[in-house]
Amino acid sequence: MAALFARFQNTAMTIPKANLMLLFAAFVWGSGFVGNRWVLDAGITPFQLIAARMFIASVCLNIFFRKQSKSISKGDFKIGILIGAFLFAGFATQTYGLMHTTAAVSAFVTAVYVILTPFMRRMLIKDKLDMYANIGALLTVAGIGLISLEGGFGMSIGIALTLVCAVCYALQTVFTDKYTKIHDPINLTIVMIGFNFVCAFIASIIQGGVPQITVGAVVALLYLGIVPTFIAYLCQNIGQKYTTAVNAAIIMSTEAVFGALLSVLILREVMSLQMVLGMITVFGAIIIAETKLAFIKRPGKK
User: What's the predicted TM-score (pTM) here?
Assistant: First the structure.
């Protein structure tokens, strides 16, 4: 495993390969909404879920990258904790939000982080905003309104928490894009995942409660810890090193599509026409904001 990821990081790494890694990460993150729902329904609390997921991923990282973990510098450690803090806040609010909404809705509201990312870059890195980002933001508001206001005015606690999660993930994306260019992405992943385990473990102890262990929950936790966490976050951190921020944002936004489709197919969730329209609006906003409609411009037009 370590040799495989090391191979991906060599000079032969291309943008298409990096994009493929990000697409794989998006798919398994989408499946993670289904896995999280299974575990929560089994009676395991959000912090217990996050702690178990991060513990499994951390063990895998330290087994497969044992030698590399010894090369983690003080700079890697600081940046890994910074990125990890936003990841933990995102995980916590997303998981608690999932307790109060469906996996499909959670997937699409989480995807709002793609729209928020340019605004965070504007605030933190002074990137310029264009009209496409503003159009995307307005469409996102409309889409979230369609999704969340189905029973009348007012937003559910589940959607509100998931929007907070989207802010945290946008910040994580900005800092990941910035620092994987100058720090080893595997080292950052080791620190980031380990930090999340420590935070979630402490929070689960403070929260209390005995985990409800079932065979199904154990299988789901093993999958969540190994595939959407250990492998997918390595793919994200390595993939973002070799592709553009725009490519990364567009590809990773497909997580919402995968999450919604798998929720319907596996969990048998039912979505109203209004919710589907809201999801389409949000996804359209992401495409407009990130592609700037370049795919429909006439060849040769400047």
Answer: 0.81
